[in-house]
Amino acid sequence: MRISDQVVMKLQALIEQRQMKKGDRLPAERQLATSLGVSRPSLREAIQQLNSQGVLSSRRGDGTYIQQLPEQWSQQLIVNPISNLIEEDPLYRFDVQEARLLLEGGTAWYAALRSTSEDRAKIHHYFDEISRHQNAGDSAQAAVADAEFHLAIAEASHNIVLIQMMRGLFDLLQYNVLLGRKKVYNDPVNGDLLSEQHFQVMDAIDRKDPEAARQAVCGHIEFVINHVRALDEDEARQKRATRLTRVDSK
């Protein structure tokens, strides 16, 4: 990750922490760099990056103002560009899943080490919500609960960088989960298996077993990757067979 991207994440956390609002002016550069623990050149680069995205607005001689609140940053800086790529080429969704392997393996590990009883109760809540919406046939709400389940695990890691990265990817994670659900969860057997995989992650965190938690969440994501790829290949074969049938009939 570039230094400027790390500064952007720190800046986002600071704005949320201080409960700043749209239109508020950021502290002076020297003060802000000290608060974030970064160099002034790195801070300037991050602010310039956010200015170009319309997230912040710097006015000569007046300071830098918030144009969008942090919860909107991920949509503009991450979700929209990657969602557009996925629409152009669905294979990009596997890049998201591979990124999840690296990120969520870490969040599950630290959640098993550091989670509080309140953290674990929240994870259990979203596990139940997934089942409730899935049983009701509401895939969209099940996808929201599924993404919240994974975010709750990240929050239980009590690692501010991992949490901010997961929050930044939340909308993209939800979109990615929904795409996977459309393919994988249509089979009741797969639905039961994925529910069991979620349970194994949750159980390992409850037992405070970091390695089991890491393996469980990575195994879950790898299962989805492999299953969706297999379904894609099957669909491609069927399309090729259909085209061949049409050619033969001419």
From TrEMBL:
Task: Enumerate the UniProt keywords alphabetically.
Answer: DNA-binding, Transcription, Transcription regulation
Under the heading CDD domains, the entry gives: WHTH_GntR
Chain ranges of the HTH gntR-type domain: 1-69
One of its Pfam families is FCD
A GO term for molecular function: DNA-binding transcription factor activity
* InterPro entries for the chain: GntR_C, TF_FadR/GntR_C, Tscrpt_reg_HTH_GntR, WH-like_DNA-bd_sf, WH_DNA-bd_sf
Q: Which NCBIfam families match?
A: PRK10421.1
Descriptive protein name:
HTH gntR-type domain-containing protein
